[in-house]
Design a protein that fits this description.
single chain, 294 residues, mainly alpha, DNA polymerase, domain 1, hpI Integrase, Chain A, 2 domains, two-stranded antiparallel ribbon
């Protein structure tokens, strides 16, 4: 990337951080996409429509989701240049717009979640610190639908006795209230009794808090303890299970959007498709006509 391009990208990322509230991870992803594009274009800021059309051809072997992400990043970048008077034309019209079918999220059945809780509770009964912590993690993941980053970043005093809600900072540094069950409160209180003191974090690890990678490993180990294939389970799968099971139980879609912290209800609507798919499967398997032959 040329020095001029780097200066434009830095300026764009500063705008995204200040005006859009983009996270560090989002800004890093933008920078990575711009650097890859610059490798092919030579000059990012001076690229023409023909240059970007050629870029689309080079992306032909990439997954549609990757192409869509890179195209969206570049469209936003060139829109920024126009808004700031740094360009008069918009070459991004030549970028590809692949059609994407949003995949249905992986979820766990209620009985599988119950098995994970039973296994975690059995281990926590020993009083061993790691097992007590893991049960608290599981209660918050499935009981409150937290994202992995939200969970590991909880401050030590986040869960307060008698308060049924928890304040979390989600994507874009937006705050929201999420419910916390009495079970989760009890599990966290038990963890606080045995956890190391003198730390700012609810789930400390060394000088910082538990990492998302470590949380991922813990969740998969708990799945294995419950006799569930570990590759099927992750913190995000438990968040999906929280949402799907609430919707199946009659939760309102707008309420679910608020609980999950989705900026767009279209993101939440994916769970209606999950529920519909399960209903179709149920009809095909259980309806009296399902096994009828001519």
């Amino acid at each position: 990337m040329t020095p001029d391009d780097r200066a434009l990208v830095d300026r764009f990322l500063d705008m995204m951080a200040a005006e859009a509230g983009s996270s560090r991870h989002t800004l890093s992803a933008y920078r990575n996409d711009f650097e890859r594009a610059a490798e092919s274009l030579g000059s990012l800021g001076k690229a023409s429509s023909d240059d970007l059309a050629r870029l689309g051809a080079e992306w032909a072997e990439l997954a549609p989701s990757t192409v869509a992400r890179r195209s969206a990043a570049l469209r936003r970048f060139f829109g920024f240049l126009i808004d700031d008077g740094l360009r008069k034309d918009d070459p991004s019209i030549a970028l590809p717009r692949p059609r994407l079918e949003r995949p249905l999220p992986r979820i766990l059945d209620l009985d599988e979640v119950q098995r994970m809780f039973e296994a975690a509770e059995d281990r926590a009964a020993s009083g061993e610190g790691g097992a007590v912590r893991n049960l608290a993690l599981l209660e918050l993941l499935y009981g409150s639908g937290l994202r992995a980053s939200e969970l590991v970043g909880l401050p030590r005093g986040a869960v307060r006795p008698g308060q049924p809600f928890l304040m979390v900072i989600g994507k874009g540094s937006k705050e929201r209230l999420v419910p916390i069950s009495s079970r989760a409160q009890a599990a966290v209180a038990r963890w606080l009794d045995v956890s190391p003191g003198g730390t700012l974090w609810l789930f400390p690890s060394g000088k910082k808090h538990l990492s998302r990678v470590r949380l991922f490993q813990i969740v998969r180990a708990m799945a294995a303890d419950a006799g569930i294939v570990p590759e099927r389970v992750s913190p995000h799968v438990l968040r999906h299970a929280f949402a799907t099971h609430l919707l199946s139980g009659g939760a309102d879609l707008r309420v679910l959007q608020s609980l999950l912290g989705h900026a767009d209800i279209a993101t939440t609507q994916i769970y209606t498709h999950v529920d519909t798919a399960r209903l179709v499967e149920l009809v095909n398997a259980r309806h009296p006509l399902a096994t009828r032959t001519r």
